[in-house]
Amino acid sequence: MRPIDLAREHGLSAQAIRNYDDAGILPPTERSETGYRRYTPLHAQALRAFLALRRGHGHQQAMEIMRATNRSDTESAYRLIDAAHVALLAERGTRTEVATALGSLSTTTPTPVTGRPLTVGELARRLGVHPATLRTWETEGILRPERDRATGYRQYGPDCVRDAEITRQLRRGGYLLHQAAQFIESLREAGGADALTAFLDSWQDRLTTRSRALLAGAAQLDTYLTMLDQPRASRVHVQRAEPLAVGESHGSPRPPVR
Question: How many CA atoms lie within 13 A of 252 on its CB side?
Answer without folding.
Answer: 9
